[in-house]
Specification:
heterodimer; A: 180 residues; alpha+beta; eight-stranded antiparallel sheet; 8 strands; 38% strand; B: 198 residues; mainly alpha; 11 helices; 65% helix; globular; disordered N terminus; disordered C terminus
Chain lengths: 180, 198
């Protein structure tokens, strides 16, 4: 029985690694799911949604495109994403988003960076043979790891708890020894 | 000293001869197996402690704070191989070592097992979305159900915590059992067979 369980575990691990190798960013289950910051906004012949993980640091930004009513979907020739702090302390950085395979519409991904927790202006520029345009929005970057320094306490607790259980068991063993 | 609850009476149940590997793991080897298992669990928590220390004491950027193993083998963290490998070890360990527990300790141990099992259902859901090429909830990336409620990276810590708590309660009830449960135990965890040997 343990060998069968072990064999199943090895097989599951192999399947997981094969998926993680091909779809690395998609398998990052604990990176945090992205949040939709722009929903179903019309840009030229497209309806666009923008998803990102609005935390300080680098992270993926996704532009999801579908054909607008009355249009057939043609893949854009370029999708670019620009971010700049509302405060104006930095100049805008434009990122080229690359296409990813999807069954319907288009999905474009790029890595963006928010270096400080503050309000940022976002621009998505789309160009295609059937038309294009841009959308603008604002996103508030938040401090990451919202547990904060409490994570240090939380990560220390298991050691204290196990030490407490071990100590209690040792006391119980001594008591049993004394009784016998 | 020959009553059902005495150490000598219990020691007569612990006879490695003729036992299968699983029976030994849950009998004479249960104490050592649980120590190894708990060592793995604490090593994992040590990785989280190291990561928290890197972020909040050393003030490293989150992307660079990869714990200890992640510093030497970054792909382990990037590919989530470390996380998934650990989740599997937990599931297998909880399952294989379950029958050594009796009474309320067994109940708590199985609570930990089923929570960990659900964790794997979530992973299967993620894996399935990658294989089918269609994500749930219109998300650009595969989504698990728990991410709908806890959509941030704290989900990992929360899962580990809610598995760890019933597991430790089970260990406590196993190491310091009520007399009625002590009489049913086939392992050395609560100390009886050593007394018998002495």
């Amino acid at each position: 029985m343990p060998l069968a369980v072990f064999g199943l575990a090895v097989a599951a691990f192999a399947v997981h690694l094969s998926g993680a190798g091909v779809h690395r960013h998609e398998m990052a289950a604990h990176r945090g799911a992205p949040t939709r910051i722009v929903a179903d906004r019309r840009i030229g012949p497209y309806v666009a949604s923008v998803w990102t993980d609005p935390e300080v640091g680098s992270g993926p930004m996704y532009v999801m495109l579908e054909a607008a009513d009355g249009h057939t979907f043609t893949s854009p020739s370029s999708v670019r994403v620009g971010v700049v702090p509302v405060s104006g302390r930095l100049s805008e950085v434009l990122h080229d988003a690359h296409s990813e395979p999807v069954r319907r519409g288009g999905r474009f991904m790029t890595e963006v960076s928010f270096d400080r927790a503050e309000l940022w202006n976002l621009r998505v520029l789309i160009a295609s043979t059937s038309g294009g345009g841009q959308l603008t929005a604002q996103v508030e970057a938040k401090p990451n790891a919202s547990f904060g320094p409490f994570a240090l306490v939380l990560s220390s607790l298991p050691f204290l708890i196990v030490a407490g259980v071990w100590w209690r068991a040792a006391v119980a063993r001594r008591r049993i020894s004394a009784l016998s | 000293m020959t009553t059902a609850q005495s150490p000598v009476a219990i020691s007569s149940h612990v006879d490695p001869a003729g036992q299968s590997f699983a029976e030994r793991l849950n009998g004479p080897w249960h104490e050592r197996s649980l120590q190894v298992f708990m060592g793995i669990v604490l090593a994992h928590w040590a990785e989280h402690l190291a990561q928290a220390y890197q972020v909040y004491v050393l003030h490293w950027p989150l992307a660079n704070a990869r714990g200890v193993l992640g510093l030497w083998f970054p792909w382990l963290v990037r590919s989530e191989a470390l996380h998934y490998g650990y989740a599997l070890v937990m599931l297998v360990g909880l399952w294989i070592l379950r029958s050594g527990f009796v009474g309320s300790a067994h109940t708590w141990w199985m609570v930990a097992f089923w929570i960990q099992f659900w964790h794997h259902i979530e992973h299967a859901l993620l894996q399935g979305q990658v294989i089918v090429g269609q994500n749930l909830f219109g998300s650009p990336v595969p989504m698990s159900l728990a991410q709908l409620v806890i959509p941030r990276l704290e989900l990992h810590l929360i899962y580990n915590t809610i598995v760890f708590i019933p597991m430790v309660i089970a260990m406590y009830r196993h190491l310091v059992p009520p007399e009625a449960e002590r009489a049913q135990m086939r392992c050395t965890c609560a100390g009886q067979p050593r007394l018998a040997a002495a």
